[in-house]
């Protein structure tokens, strides 16, 4: 162990980074027809001799990213001046301080823009901790003392469903056989599914071509966006099923488009194509609605979670039997600490976790959470897959690597969150070189 230092966090640097994905309809769905994938990006700088920085972000889809950046900046006073050693030894202290700021907490509490900002900063702290430990984050978590992991979790509001003692028992049991699973993970990777073929704005030719390519690339599950027009969805699902054949799982995603009764009718209408799950069939806040849909559309599974605010709502979804597949998001809740709680809740209830990763950088982050879950918590990848979308990875210093439909386990230290400096310079809004040139061209065309 390195000797303690007097190093401090010296700056919280923020960037409003946006990519023009709406122009090719990448990411398009029934609720979000024209997303510009964006990152409210944060860098924790320190005066430590090792030169390490902590990188984190939260994902948005364009306008409003400036609001998200402002929320991150509102947390600066809680971070600058902290001991680097203390922060990396106990990121939970930072998490508790950020969540506990009563005046900012009032804006949630523990939900929305402010909570996502907390997640970005907390994730940046974990990135810094993993770099200083010289380990990828999944390995830092998997090899950590179970009692220390429990100390990182806020159990307030959870103990009627999960106590610290229960969490510790799950983690202690999860460590059995971890070395063998680590070796297998490094050799084989973690299974993935792809949404890259199924964006709602793609025509049938592109959908079919990309679905065929996905199967050839080793994916055993693809996902289609649905919910705008039933006749279109029937046609697209028929084309996708014909392209991939009966042995490939086909998931569908409504992105919160429907009322409960409508979700039931629409899902039943698509049942002939053997959908594996229906994702976000209704409001992400409607726990009882999800439960009603689940009862009505079985054996089609119900999946949700990418827009769930916090661990408390996940707890209630599990308690109510409202979902078959839990889709946590690395950047919507309060960072790694809260996602540890969500993983443990899912493990206790026996519900598989298939993270949401449809967004810039989310693939890079969630792979670490799933790999920790596999190695040191649930010990399985059965019915577990990580979403994969095939764009924007080239902007990261340690991008995801796919091999035969599997995520290769990251080996570089950190949380895989660091973006290339040239990408930050080019796509910072509105003054980056891409956006400045784009704005100038639009003005010229309007003249």
UniProtKB/TrEMBL annotation:
Enzyme class: lyase
Known EC number: 4.2.1.68
Mandelate racemase/muconate lactonizing enzyme C-terminal domain: residues covered: 204-300
Reactions it catalyzes: L-fuconate = 2-dehydro-3-deoxy-L-fuconate + H2O
Cofactor(s) in the UniProt record: Mg(2+)
GO biological process: amino acid catabolic process; carbohydrate catabolic process
Single annotated GO MF: magnesium ion binding
InterPro entries for the chain: Enolase-like_C_sf (IPR036849), Enolase-like_N (IPR029017), Enolase_C-like (IPR029065), L-fuconate_dehydratase (IPR034610), Mandel_Rmase/mucon_lact_enz_CS (IPR018110), Mandelate_racemase_C (IPR013342), Mandelate_racemase_N_dom (IPR013341), RHMD-like (IPR046945)
Keyword vocabulary terms for this entry: Lyase, Magnesium, Metal-binding
Protein name, UniProt field: L-fuconate dehydratase
The organism of origin for this protein: Streptomyces griseoruber
Organism placement in taxonomy: Bacteria, Bacillati, Actinomycetota, Actinomycetes, Kitasatosporales
